[in-house]
Amino acid sequence: MKKTLATATLLATCTAQAEYGPQLEGFDYPYPLQTYSFSSQQQALEMGYLDVPPSEAANGKTAVLLHGKNFCGATWETTIKVLSNAGYRVIAPDQVGFCSSSKPRGYQFSFGQLADNTDALLASLNIDKATIIGHSMGGMLAARYALSHPERVEQLVLVNPIGLEDWQAEGVPYATIDQLYQAQLKTTREGIKNYQLKFYYNGEWKPEYDRWVDMSYGMYAGPGKEIVAWNQAQTAEMLFTQPVVHEFGNIQAPTLLLIGGKDRTAPGANRAPEAVAQRLGNYPELGQKTAEAIPNATLVEFPELGHSPQVEAPEQFHQALLKELSTD
């Protein structure tokens, strides 16, 4: 059967894959992208970031949004708008090794280093104190930032953070950076979408999610895919070997935990024995344990949501976020 021209065009549109540069060149950020140039580990580096002023009467506060491993500052698009409308100045950086920021080949990635980079960015913007909001891997980074720079944190918000358990201690085998790199080179758009469908959106896909799949996959499809995969491998090893869960009791800042209960994210579970993998990533249980471990913590649960509640159910999520921020 012959395809009509309209059908052929539709198929071509559906199968077209975005291609972006190694620093996400070609992707449209929701707000003007700015660049912070600095030196780290004897290298000249750049961090891309969004700096969005209050759109309504300013409340004098700043919110810093830290993205996850499979995300970028741009993924916070709706949250930025909501917080700006609530009077916040909003800073959303891309960490070194991710998205619009530098992709160094030789770099000692650590949460301590990324926290220091973030602190240097905030200092350059004359921000002395802020509400630090981290999602997924950004939650691990936010916790490390709160531990390293307690005087700079007005409130800590952790949105389905990973790192609520120590995967290596739980029995997940170690994988070298070389092994992780080879796995990253096999990344496909379909693989990214299927992973997000399972863990982020509880099996229900909406067309607006495709933008975030394209954002992630576009760097693997572009001319810098090798260095993108290399940095992803380095940071995958970082989050596996640098747990923060054992230090939760030392967090001083008032902490808000926003937990989607359908989430089962557990990095490395795919290489663990079945009995180990089955018990990992139990966010309803992990949320409760974390709320008990952090001295001044408030837990808000979304039992029906997955790993990215701010994208999956933005109205519900942001209503809860603003309610808890306003009580601070």
UniProtKB/TrEMBL annotation:
- What are the annotated GO cellular component locations? membrane
Example of a GO MF term: monoacylglycerol lipase activity
Coiled-coil intervals in this record? none
An example GO biological process term is: acylglycerol catabolic process
- Would the keyword Hydrolase be found if you checked this record's keyword annotation? yes
Q: What Gene3D superfamilies is this protein classified in?
A: alpha/beta hydrolase
Q: Which residues form the AB hydrolase-1 domain?
A: 64-314
Mention any Pfam family matching this sequence. Answer: Abhydrolase_1
Alphabetized UniProt keyword annotations: Hydrolase
Could you tell me what this protein is called? Alpha/beta hydrolase
Please report the organism this UniProt entry assigns to the protein. Answer: Halopseudomonas pachastrellae
